[in-house]
Each structure stands twice: as structure tokens, then as C-alpha cells.
């Protein structure tokens, strides 16, 4: 999951070297925190959050295949 989010985010931003994904596991849930440059926040979130929602949808679909629950948080 972590690698998937990292690949998607790096393809969207202007500063891919500043993209960082941290993974935390709690109970049956994986929490992924996506850190990007402040300049790239708009590109990752998109108009009305459409890109962020699309990224979350792809990650949740991949997690469902592995019977896991994933939460994606986008942090500046």
C-alpha cells in the first residue's frame, strides 16, 4: 500500500523528492500519512478533493484484495 501511494503521489507533484509516506498499524487498520511539499498540496488534493478521493479509492480497492482496512491522511 505504501509503495502504491508513493508512486501515485510522485507522478502528480512537481517536487517528487519531497514526497514521503509513513505507515502505522493499529488493530486491523493501516494508517498511511502522505507528506508533500506545501507547493504541491493543491495538486495532490485537486479541485474539491477529487484527486485525493481518487487516490483513496485506488488504495482502498488494493486493501480490499488483501482483506485490510486502510486510511490515507494527506499532511503538509
TrEMBL record:
Pfam family, one: KH_KhpA-B
Assembly and binders: Forms a complex with KhpB.
Name listed for the protein in its UniProt record: RNA-binding protein KhpA
Function: A probable RNA chaperone. Forms a complex with KhpB which binds to cellular RNA and controls its expression. Plays a role in peptidoglycan (PG) homeostasis and cell length regulation.
A single BP term in Gene Ontology: regulation of cell shape
Parts of the chain that traverse the membrane: none
Entry-linked InterPro entries: KH_dom-like_a/b (IPR015946), KH_sf_prok-type (IPR009019), KhpA (IPR020627)
Keyword Chaperone among record annotations: yes
Family: Belongs to the KhpA RNA-binding protein family.
GO CC term, one of those recorded: cytoplasm
Assigned keywords, A-Z: Cell shape, Cell wall biogenesis/degradation, Chaperone, Cytoplasm, RNA-binding
Gene label: khpA
Subcellular location: Cytoplasm
Source species: Alkalibacter saccharofermentans DSM 14828
Residues of the signal peptide: none
Molecular function terms, GO-annotated: RNA binding
